[in-house]
């Protein structure tokens, strides 16, 4: 008795650990065999497709056929005697942020599956413009859980990718399924009483932007953002916490281009609903401030040695008007400014500007009397 109780404890503990572990290493093998955690006694089971639209019945049937082709036989059953019920539901609290879910009941002592209820979230599949093919992929994912598969890694090209939308049943999934069913049931361990537990295996939506690119135009004072959106129906863009643009996404994965007029050096934040997708700080769209390495003030001129980047435009300003401009061609550039026409030396400021970025914030020139020199401490 004691021995059996121990076994039960170890099994539940290892299961809990596995479920709470999220792989961080995205570079991990994209083709690794899909892991499994549960199974039916045999490599087949029964299903019922609940009352729902023709369209969604078709999607579940296609997914069931997908697994049949891969070698797992789902057999149609009567509703009173089935191991799987396939539903399509409107979004409620339990489906929020999910494309679909499998509610599984299994015996913890031998990991044999008792029953499944798989659901598709009709609301989000519609809102995020899933194609029929992509809906079938989600259904295949839930059926993959229902026959015993766990999630593959985040970067995997597997139907069991935790945020799958694009992949159908693939080689890693077929290998995982075959592995799960390779042992005979006799070797799985004894079933101890009614140790049946329920778990939820969801497929989460993954709202994101890829290939985000930004370009600032000094002529129009506007920032242009471009990129591709996934699992997003509308982008809400804030500047300094104020909404400045709502952008409706036409198609999943579609390229967007948004032009944003603004003033200052505050953060942009991009939201999908309440979900923060990206923060763009000023350093991302603004040229770094130039660094003055040394300076010397002569009778009628100032000599500056500036740490910059080739191609940057250096400007000197008096009373917010540019009085000098040059394009640097070397990382440490020397500038000689004629000060004959300068009215107030202490009002001189310096900026630099890189193509595609906003001009840097101004820095003041060091305070110097005629004949004095300045050296930065580095
Ligand atoms: Zn899942």
Could you characterize the architecture of this molecule?
Strand 14 (291-297) and strand 15 (301-307) form a beta hairpin. The longest helix has 19 residues, at 2-20. This protein starts with a helix and ends with a strand. It has 6 helices and 21 strands. It is elongated, with a radius of gyration of 31 Å. It is of the alpha+beta class. It has a 6-stranded mixed sheet with strand order 2-1-3-5-4-6. Mean pLDDT is 89; it is low at 1-27. The chain has helices spanning 2-20, 54-70, 122-127, 132-146, 171-180, 282-285; strands spanning 44-49, 73-76, 84-89, 98-107, 112-121, 196-204, 208-217, 222-230, 234-239, 242-248, 255-261, 268-272, 275-280, 291-297, 301-307, 313-318, 321-327, 332-338, 348-353, 363-364, 373-375. Zinc ion is lined by residues 141, 145, 151, 201-203.
Ligands bound, unique: zinc ion
Helix content: 10-25%
List SSEs in N-to-C order: HEHEEEEHHHEEEEEEEEHEEEEEEEE
Radius of gyration: 31 Å
Main-sheet strand order equals 2-1-3-5-4-6
* Coarse shape: elongated
Number of helical elements: 6
Strand portion, in percent?
A: 35-45%
What is the CA–CA distance across the termini? 73 Å
User: Main sheet, how many strands, which sense, barrel?
Assistant: 6 strands, mixed
Structural class designation: alpha+beta
Q: Which residues form runs of ≥5 with pLDDT under 50? A: 1-27
The whole-number mean of residue pLDDT values reads: 89
Write down how many β-strands occur, each being a DSSP E stretch of 2 or more residues. 21
């Amino acid at each position: 008795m004691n021995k059996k109780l121990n076994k039960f404890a170890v099994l539940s503990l290892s299961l809990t650990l596995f479920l709470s572990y999220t792989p961080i290493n995205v570079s991990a093998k994209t083709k690794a065999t899909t892991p499994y955690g549960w199974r039916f006694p045999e490599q087949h089971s029964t299903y019922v497709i609940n009352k729902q639209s023709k369209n969604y019945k078709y999607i579940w049937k296609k997914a069931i056929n997908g697994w049949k082709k891969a070698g797992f036989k789902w057999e149609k059953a009567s509703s009173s005697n089935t191991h799987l019920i396939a539903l399509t539901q409107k979004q409620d609290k339990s489906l929020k942020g999910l494309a679909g879910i499998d509610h599984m009941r299994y015996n913890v002592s031998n990991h044999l599956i008792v029953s499944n209820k798989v659901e598709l979230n009709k609301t989000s599949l519609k809102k995020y413009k899933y194609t029929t093919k992509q809906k079938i992929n989600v259904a295949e994912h839930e059926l993959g859980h229902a026959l015993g598969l766990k999630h593959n890694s985040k970067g995997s090209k597997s139907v069991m990718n935790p945020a799958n939308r694009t992949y159908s049943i693939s080689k890693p999934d077929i290998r995982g399924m075959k592995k799960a069913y390779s042992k005979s049931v006799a070797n799985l361990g004894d079933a101890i009483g009614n140790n049946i537990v329920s778990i939820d295996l969801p497929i989460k939506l993954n709202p994101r932007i890829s290939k985000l690119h930004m370009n600032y135009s000094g002529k129009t004072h506007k920032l242009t953002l471009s990129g591709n959106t996934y699992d997003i129906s509308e982008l809400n863009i804030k500047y300094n916490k104020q909404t400045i643009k709502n952008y409706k996404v036409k198609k999943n994965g579609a390229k967007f281009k948004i032009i944003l007029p603004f003033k200052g050096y505050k953060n942009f934040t991009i939201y999908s609903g309440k979900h923060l997708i990206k923060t763009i700080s000023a350093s991302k769209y603004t040229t770094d401030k130039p660094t003055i390495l040394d300076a010397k003030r002569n009778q009628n001129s100032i000599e500056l040695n500036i740490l910059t980047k080739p191609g940057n435009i250096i400007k000197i300003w008096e009373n917010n008007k540019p009085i000098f401009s040059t394009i640097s061609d070397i990382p440490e550039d020397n500038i000689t400014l004629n000060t004959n026409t300068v009215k107030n030396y202490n009002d001189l400021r310096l900026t630099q500007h890189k193509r595609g970025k906003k001009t840097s914030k101004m820095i003041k020139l060091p305070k110097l009397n005629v004949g004095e020199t300045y050296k930065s401490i580095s």
